[in-house]
Amino acid sequence: MLSAGGIVQDCFDFVSDIETKKMPVTTGKYGPLVGAIDEGTSSARFLVFAARTREVVASHQIEITNTYPQEGWVEQNPKEILTAVEECITKAVETLRADDVEPSDIIAVGITNQRETTIVWDAVTGEPLHNAIVWLDMRTTSTVDAILETVPNKSLNYLKPLCGLPISPYFSALKLRWLIENVPKVQQAIDEKCCCVGTVDTWLIWNLTGGKDGGIHITDVTNASRTMLMNIETLQWDPLLCRFFKIPKDLLPEIRSSSEIYGTIADGVLQGVPISGCLGDQQSALLGQMCFEQGQAKSTYGTGCFLLYNTGTARVESTHGLVTTVAYRMGKKAAAVYALEGSVAVAGAALGWLRDNINLLQSVSEIEPLADEVGSTEDVYFVPAFSGLYAPYWQQDARGVICGITDETTKGHIIRAALEAVCFQIRDILEAMSKDCGLQLTRLQVDGGMTANNLLMQTQADLVGIPVMRPRMAETTALGAAMAAGSAEGIEVWDLKNIQPVPCDIFNPLITEEERDARYSKWKMAVERSFGWETTHVRCDDR
User: What stretch of H or E contains 276?
Assistant: First the structure.
């Protein structure tokens, strides 16, 4: 039994999911292996999966440094990202060799990455022209305000019919526009025809396939769908969107499918191994959770929180604050599968704030026991809108509030309120998805580092009123990238049509619907109180 009190059971029997006849002949004890680069906001990792069992047989992880040049700005060093990825690959291969497994058993590599983070570099020297601007960076808020003044009704949704996304600092186009306008070296490289731009996947693939000596400048359709520059229907860079943001189209990488052989690793311990899978991290988790059918959904809990709902080959345009995105496209000839997505800017980051900024915690290990000890929040509500709210509100002028404090409030109540804030924000998104699609989810599949917290998972089930299903194999994001790589034409060690889900734990709701709705009503009151604090920016109510 889990400490939070949820009912635990196997939701699926583990079944071998590989058609052995498709396997290449290998001599290693694990059979064919597929590698996955998982480059996230806080760390880079390389994991090696055994294709027959989906077991992780080797891995290595290195933390990535965030820098904060000004309030609301978040940057990373692109060279640090690349070096960390290369070191993770080297260390994981050393682990394989110590286990008497040759790296030649790795027959393909997939990549999954933090999305929207934007990098610009010199194609001749290979040097970055500026630090990477991270997805949660808010420096372009004033640019958004200026843009909204020029569009009909100051509508955030003005470009949604073309790209599926609202006008927001979150997405890559505005970050790229800022780099062009504010970094002289970028404009100089554009003038000299040697400027390359891309998200983290593009930067990694370009470098791993040769860099300045023939590197491939590509992205996949899932990452491209997060830029505000790709047409959500044609799956190509849209001339109107490029003109709107004043971004030369020839700077952008070629858009490819999520599962095909893009090229081979140019040097290092995996020299010659094909890179054959690429997805943004949230789409990769959707794939790793086996959400292949329309109506299936998953929620990933990390620095932020992201819920994706598979809508099949149909593009659903949300009227309730969600975005339309590409879930995956599994091959050059395959149809794109779409998803509705709700993005929460601050999830695990709120707990980091409690630890690092106001010293309520010494370490993450204290969160669950301190929150469990108090039993409830005693009506304390914490809205962690540190730099605005994402879906479904899209209120960039919102700021964080803690409501309901009394003289009996302790740090345990505030910590528990921070956990509940994650769960309430997911309910916000599920409510919007239900309105858009007319369907109620019957279960919520979850993944990400925060799901190790049993209290959080039980609270999530309680506050959304449906079972929460946590895979016992936690590496679903990396698994999705490996699945895309391993099922690509010419590799084909995974047959996704016959693959079986992994075993999982189930957390069932334990509170009444009346209590659930009463708590949610107070959460909505707290959210309303977070609006309108950043008064230097135009508030736009068109959501």
Answer: strand 274-280
Terminal-to-terminal C-alpha distance of the chain: 43
Q: Report residue 489: phi and psi, to 5°.
A: -60, 130
- Identify the DSSP state of 389: B
Contacts of 377 (CB under 8 A, 6+ apart): 404, 413, 416, 417, 420
CB neighbours of residue 155 within 10 Å: 15
| Helix (H), strand (E) at residue 476 | helix 476-486
d(Cα 342, Cα 305) in Å, to the nearest integer? Answer: 8
Confidence band (pLDDT; 50, 70, 90) for 71? confident
Q: What is the reported pLDDT for 27?
A: 59
Q: Across all residues in the chain, what is the average pLDDT?
A: 87
Q: In degrees, to the nearest 5, what angle opens at C-alpha 425 toward C-alphas 513 and 384?
A: 130
Q: Are the CB atoms for 346 and 384 separated by under 8 Å?
A: yes
E strand or H helix that includes residue 490: none
pLDDT of residue 200: 96
Tally Cβ neighbours within 10 Å of residue 87: 14
- Tally of CA atoms within 13 A in the half-sphere of 33 that contains its CB: 26
Cα dist. 133→62, 138, 160, 179, 441 in Å?
20, 10, 23, 9, 35
Gap between the Cα atoms of 357 and 351, Å rounded: 10
Measured CA to CA, the distance from residue 349 to residue 354 in angstroms comes to 9
pLDDT score of 10? 41
Strands 381-383 and 274-280, by their bridges, are unpaired
Omega into 392 within 30° of 0, i.e. cis? yes
Return the C-alpha torsion angle 172, 330, 479, 35, nearest 10: -90
Which tops the pLDDT comparison, 42 or 523? 523
The C-alpha atoms of residue 349 and residue 356 are separated, in whole angstroms, by: 10
**Integer Rg of the chain from CA:** 22
Q: Do strands 444-447 and 297-301 pair parallel, antiparallel, or not at all (unpaired)? A: parallel
Amino acid at 59: S
Sequence-separated (6 or more) residues with CB below 8 Å from residue 462: 423, 509, 510, 511, 516
Element (H, E) at 19: none
Residue 376 carries which DSSP code? S
Give, in order, the Cα–Cα distances in Å from 29 to each of 26, 57, 92, 102, 373.
8, 11, 16, 10, 47
Rounded CA-CA distance 306/303 in Å is 10
Residues 6+ apart with CB under 8 A from 408: 378
Residue 506: count of CB within 10 angstroms of its CB: 18
CB 16 within 8 A of CB 517: no
Q: What is the DSSP string of 35-53?
A: EEEEE-SSEEEEEEEETTT
Q: What strands, in cross-sheet order, belong to the sheet with 56-63?
A: 56-63, 43-50, 33-39, 106-113, 274-280, 259-264
